[in-house]
Specification:
D-amino Acid Aminotransferase, Chain A, domain 1; six-stranded antiparallel β-sheet; Rossmann fold; 11 helices; Dna Ligase, domain 1; alpha+beta
Length: 335
């Protein structure tokens, strides 16, 4: 097939359309890995990047007439607020695409929306209060401290640091002010759930499959220091090395608890209208209560990420995973 791989850039794309030198650095591993896998599958691959020129992007799609678009887009003008808008373009043009719909992306990006959708399904999540940008005089006394304060609509742990963990109302409001001023976005304060940091990857369309669970562990953290996935804990190699932070398969895990997590993951996937692939960030307490912290549509697809490691444990090679995502994208009834 003719497969267009759509991804975003922090600068205007090269006029000659040569993206090879751009996606060589390690930061572009997911895009490069997907392109190489599609080529191995025998597809004609057309990379197409976007920064701030939506007209040229649309014209390129109409010119190429791809059989499907592999959607790796996350931002427009480096603003992630537009991620769902970009997926809407594919629907308006009636071109099949991979991954989740604009509606699902919108619901999951707003952590407050996610909680509201999950409520009728009896899925646990931390209680929270949203602080719209510029507003800090809201009551958090009904919440149980300590709290986590983070941007309402950021991903990849952006805006999450050790200072996000707050134990007093004053500290909470100070962190809210920081989120408002540094990230220019609403903030959410939610109850901190003590427990294991578990990642459940879900794939499929009509029939869903929960891949083997992954976990972030903290080997060298001081006793009593809160353990959660800050930006540094996810992405800073030196920080991870210093504190013994590693991602591995979740073990030991009681089979009954694993089945429970699977049921919750599938229920959340369906409730939020996700499609193709997604990852849920969970907290598992000592009492085996499962809390959904965040739901990530179209998660990272680099060949060394938790999602792909989980697929490999399920005997799905990276190339097979990319092929499945393309197949599900073709089968989705978007309009």
């Amino acid at each position: 097939m003719k497969v267009m791989v759509a991804f975003d850039l922090p600068v205007p794309p090269p006029e000659d359309g040569n993206f090879a030198r751009i996606i060589t650095p390690d930061d572009w591993r997911p895009t490069r890995n997907v392109i190489e896998a599609l080529q191995k599958l025998g597809h004609e691959v057309i990379p197409c990047a976007i920064y701030d020129d939506i007209v040229s992007f649309i014209m390129k799609i109409k010119e190429v007439k791809p059989d499907i678009i592999f959607n790796l887009l996350e931002s427009f003008r480096m603003d992630r607020h537009f991620e769902s808008h970009l997926a809407s373009i594919f629907e308006l043009l009636r071109v099949p695409y991979t991954g989740c719909s604009p509606t699902a992306i919108t619901l999951c990006k707003n952590k407050s929306f996610t909680k509201r959708i999950l409520t009728p399904h009896h899925i646990k999540y931390p209680r929270s209060v949203v602080f719209p940008k510029g507003q800090i005089k809201l009551n958090v006394k009904k919440l149980r401290f300590p709290l986590m304060v983070k941007p309402l609509m950021q991903e990849s742990s952006d805006g999450i640091a050790q200072r996000s963990f707050v134990e007093t109302e004053d500290a909470c409001l100070d962190r809210v002010k920081t989120i408002h001023s540094h990230f220019m976005t609403d903030a959410i304060a939610e109850e901190y759930i003590e427990g294991r940091e578990i990642y459940a990857s879900v794939i499929g369309s009509t029939r869903l499959h929960v891949l083997p669970l992954r976990e972030m562990i903290f080997k060298n953290f001081p006793e009593g220091k809160p353990r959660f996935a800050t930006f540094k804990a996810k992405w800073d190699r030196e920080f991870r090395k210093k504190w013994g932070i590693t991602n591995t398969f979740a073990h030991p895990m009681d089979p009954a608890v694993e089945r429970k997590i699977g049921r919750i993951a599938r229920a959340a996937f369906r409730a939020l209208g996700l499609s193709g692939y997604a990852r849920l960030d969970l907290r598992l307490t000592d009492n085996n209560d499962v809390y959904v912290i965040e739901v990530n549509p179209n998660p990272n697809l680099s060949n060394d990420d938790d999602f792909t490691y989980a697929a490999q444990r399920a005997n799905i090679t990276y190339t097979q995973l990319i092929n499945k995502i393309v197949t599900w994208g073709l089968k989705e009834e978007r309009w």
